[in-house]
Fold this sequence. Notes:
By secondary structure, the protein is of the alpha/beta class. The chain has helices at residues 2-27, 32-40, 58-62, 69-81, 93-98, 100-116, 166-179, 205-218, 234-243, 255-265, 286-295, 343-352, and strands spanning 46-49, 86-90, 120-127, 186-193, 224-225, 247-250, 272-276, 299-303. It has a single domain, classed as Glycosidases (TIM Barrel, Alpha-Beta Barrel), CATH 3.20.20. Helix 4 runs parallel beside helix 6, helix 7 (166-179) runs parallel beside helix 8 (205-218) and helix 8 (205-218) runs parallel beside helix 9 (234-243). The protein is globular, with a radius of gyration of 20 Å.
Amino acid sequence: MKKILIVAVTLLMCNLGMAQKKDVLIKNKWSAEKANNWYAQHKWISGANFIPSTAINQLEMWQEDTFDPETIDRELGYAEGIGFNTMRVYLHSLAYKADKEGFKKRVDQYLKIANKHGIQTILVIFDDVWDANPKIGKQREPKPGTHNSGWMQDPGYPASKNEANFPELETYVKDIIKTFANDNRVLLWDLYNEPGNNGKSSESLPLLKQVFTWAREVNPSQPISVGIWKWNEKELNEFQVTNSDIVTYHDYEAPEWHLRVIQLLESFGRPLICTEYMARTRDSRFSNILPMLKEHNIGAINWGLVNGKTNTIYAWDTPISSGEEPIEWFHDIFRKDGTPYRQDEVDLIKKLNNK
Length: 355
């Protein structure tokens, strides 16, 4: 009888804990009215996904030995010059694990530099894209002509599905969000980039649910979101949209398809930010996408600012082993010296940003 009672109490406590976590997701989610009022206080959001040209991945960006504030300052100056006001920047839990206080100081230093240039930041927590085996320490050199040859998932695989890792990840997520929870230099928390990518699909759902819960428990002053990126991931997409304050999404398609996506997502009645677009050889260009996003008052964050070690001027699936410059760049706007890849694109960006 005593054993049965213990089991019953344990089950009750577990169910109560699950109910409380569900309640915090509902209780702390922003209403559509609050989200739209927040959005109305900002001028049109435009910018890029940013990593300095001297970093191959998030770890090289944030680790003490390779953190490069001089390059960050210079390249965010290029962004300021064309009127960009927002950067989307990836963090990494291993950089935090290696040096918790130092990592937070470097994030603060980055935010100071960005703020100097009139730029707010979308901070990305987890990521299911590219290499599944991140390691602390010196990062490998880029593979010539290969798109994102050193980019690292966070926390990686199978780490992302191993629930034994969740307590340590919870500490990381809550510490980072609490540290900057009332910091107006942070525009938005993007909790998980492309959950389910690299064939993980719904294996990423438990961590996705946890990171939303952890963020809601902190309840930062900034909105939280996870972007829709693959339409046939029904279970993931439903959870992401249901629990996001602001609807964010990725779209690298031509304008006809992108417009259909916009029309669908507008039905949620919440602000929209496209946190990834612009792949020239797929006909997702500044010339045909950026004016459409502004017309619909949708935040526009393209992939890539400066051509560098990430090699994102090369397309995802068409490496150039010689490392020669492609006939047409896939992503990115500037060369390292600040020269635009295409002056007409820069002129358009400046015009739409009233620069």
